[in-house]
Structure formats: structure tokens, C-alpha cells
Design a protein that fits this description.
This protein has 336 residues and is of the alpha/beta class. The chain folds into two domains: 17-110 and 216-311, 3-Layer(aba) Sandwich (Rossmann fold); 135-213, Orthogonal Bundle (DNA polymerase, domain 1). Helix content is 39%, strand content 11%. A seven-stranded mixed β-sheet has the order 3-2-1-4-5-7-6, with helices on both faces. β1, α2 (41-47) and β2 form a beta-alpha-beta unit. α6 packs antiparallel against α7, α6 (147-158) packs across α9 and α7 crosses α8 (181-191). The longest helix has 15 residues, at 216-230.
Length: 336
């Protein structure tokens, strides 16, 4: 995940907002789940349409204050829950007409710049990277996990080519001192065989640690599965991703449900399998040149969406099997 705001803390830029609204069509009413509430950019736009309701989720405690502001204005049409979006199936939705479930997987500029969270390699002091509702921090991972485990985290979550060298040097250094943010950056820079002039040497390792600490792989996988369960027929699941690993997971899940035949529990035994969702386009929607100029971090955003064709709850999917090797890496956290 990367920042979705430009360096102007006062102004928030919900990425691909116009495109999202045109896809989910809130002008026709219904209930929408904003799985990554943040500053409430999508939520506020949806609530401008009078026949809508929004159920907003966010694991970050900092989002509660913004949610209270919106609650005052839209008391009967807005509900906020400080939970992880992988748990959206636990919401009481029996009487809700869920027309759309929306995910924006980017970090905001404010989150990146929050020194308490420690998401950035420019942060000073103790490693953290916890987004909320976490069991461990980056400090725990860096100072406890062994070389093999760290290597796999950096390689698979960050696509870091020098993952083994970096992990080796971390283990060597931590024998004599606790690894802080500054120390980790120094280790990474000294471990890199080649310097990239366009990106900071620590970028990929810090991305990998953020993914690991917040269990973003399993969060996304179970978030998608549960979104597919709760959205009603003709409803939309829309996801904005910011790096290739996220996009690969979303692309596979959407393709498997829209192109491959599957089964819901409502299909009688022996009946033919059916396509449970419809994909409008194989290619993702990307920001316009105008949006990129206004909000440069949006350049890496990709929006994919699918439409539910049948009413069902339980269904077959191979997504856990497909990305099980990544969930196994997340499970290194059991040592922490």
C-alpha cells in the first residue's frame, strides 16, 4: 500500500472518486459498505445522495473522530465500526440492501506522516507500523524472527532482490543492539548491491513489513470473500489497489468468480455450476492525467470491480489455496 494523498494534510484526495461513484450508482439508493473509511471521502460523496446509507469500517483509531463528524450530519444514514474489514461478515446486515462494497487499499498521507505509526523509513525512533487492532509490531518482527523468515517476508511481500543479505545483516546487528527505524534504514542501505535512483533503498523492505505487521494479505483475501457473501444480487464489489501483489490477488479473485464456474449453496445438488459474478472489463480503470497531476501518488492506483449475478452466501473459491504460501509467511507472527 502507498499514500493516497499529496503533501497537503488539509486536503484529502479519495482516489478515482468519480469513477467509483459512476460504477456503484448511489443515486438509485441502497446501503453501501465503505471498508476503508479513512477520512471519509467515498462515504461523504455517497451520502450526498438522499436514499443511501453507509456502513463504514476502519481499523485505525484515528478515523473515529472523522466518523463522529459525519455521524452528526447523517445520523440515521451512517454507521461506523472500528473493526478490520475482514470481519465485515459479522455485521448485522439481514435487513440491509447491500448495493456496493468498496475497498481503497492505500495509506493516506496523514498515516504515512504519523510518527506514532512509524510507517515511513523517514520516521525516527522505535519501529511500529501498527494500523490498529494488531497483535505485534515491526519492532517485534525485526528483533525476533530468524533470517529465513525475514528473508521470505522481504522477498514475497516487498519483492526485495537483496532480501537475504538484508535479513542476514539485521540478525548480525541485533545481537548487540535493538534495531530502531534509523538503524534498519542504515542496514538496508549498506546491504543493497545496487542503488535505485528513483526510489529509496528502504522502500521495499518497509512495504513488506507494513504488509506483514497488518496481515494485509489475509485481510484482503477474507475481506473479498466476505464482500462476495454480503453484497446483494446486481450489487458491486469495487477495489482500488496500489501495488502489484494486491492487484494480483484481486484480479485472480474477480476472474475466478466471473469466468470460472462456481457453486453457491442455493444451487441444488447435481445442477450445473454457474458464473456468480460478471466482470465488465479485464483491464483495470486507472486515474486520468488530470487526477495524477492533482494527486501524484494516485498514478499507481488500479480500480477493478465485479457485479453479482446471483443471490448466494456460501460459495466455492480457490483464493486461499492460490495464495496460501503468502498466508503461511504471515503466520510467522505466531512466534511473536
Amino acid at each position: 500500500m502507498i499514500a493516497t494523498m499529496i503533501p497537503d494534510v488539509k486536503k484529502h484526495y479519495p482516489v478515482l472518486l468519480s469513477e467509483i461513484i459512476s460504477i456503484i450508482t448511489p443515486q438509485y439508493g441502497g446501503t453501501f459498505i465503505d471498508c476503508t473509511f479513512g477520512h471519509g471521502g467515498y462515504t461523504k460523496k455517497i451520502l450526498n445522495f438522499k436514499k443511501t446509507k453507509v456502513i463504514a469500517l476502519d481499523r485505525d483509531l484515528e478515523s473515529i473522530a472523522k466518523a463522529k463528524e459525519i455521524q452528526k450530519k447523517f445520523e440515521n444514514r451512517f454507521l461506523f465500526k472500528n473493526i478490520k474489514f475482514s470481519e465485515l461478515n459479522n455485521l448485522k446486515l439481514k435487513n440491509e440492501n447491500i448495493k456496493g462494497v468498496i475497498f481503497d487499499l492505500g495509506y493516506s498521507y496523514a498515516q504515512i506522516k504519523d510518527h506514532k505509526k512509524g510507517l515511513s523509513f523517514r520516521t525516527v525512533g522505535e519501529l511500529n507500523m501498527k494500523m490498529g487492532i494488531n497483535d505485534f509490531s515491526a519492532k517485534d518482527a525485526i528483533n525476533i524472527l530468524d533470517k529465513k523468515e525475514l528473508t521470505q517476508i522481504f522477498k514475497y511481500f516487498g519483492d526485495e532482490k537483496d532480501s537475504s543479505r538484508i535479513a542476514h545483516n539485521i540478525v548480525e546487528d541485533r545481537a548487540t543492539r535493538e534495531i530502531t527505524t534509523e538503524e534498519l534504514v542504515r542496514i538496508i542501505e549498506s546491504s543493497k548491491r545496487k542503488k535505485n535512483q528513483k526510489t529509496h533503498s528502504a522502500t521495499k523492505v518497509f512495504q513488506a513489513l507494513r504488509i506483514f505487521v497488518n496481515k494485509e494479505i489475509s485481510e484482503l483475501i477474507y475481506g473479498l470473500i466476505n464482500a462476495a457473501k454480503v453484497v446483494k444480487k446486481d450489487g458491486i464489489i469495487a477495489v482500488v489497489t496500489f501495488h502489484s501483489l494486491e492487484d494480483k490477488i484481486v484480479k485472480h479473485f474477480f476472474k475466478s468468480l466471473s469466468e470460472n464456474k462456481s457453486v453457491s449453496r442455493y444451487v441444488p445438488k447435481g445442477e450445473d455450476k454457474i458464473n456468480l459474478f460478471k466482470s465488465v472489463s479485464k483491464k483495470p480503470i486507472i486515474p486520468s492525467e488530470k487526477e495524477i497531476q492533482e494527486n501524484p501518488p494516485s498514478r499507481s492506483a488500479k480500480l477493478r470491480y465485479i457485479i453479482k449475478k446471483e443471490d448466494f452466501y456460501d460459495f466455492e473459491t480457490d483464493i486461499i489455496e492460490k495464495f496460501g504460501h503468502l498466508i503461511k509467511i504471515e503466520n510467522f507472527s505466531k512466534k511473536l
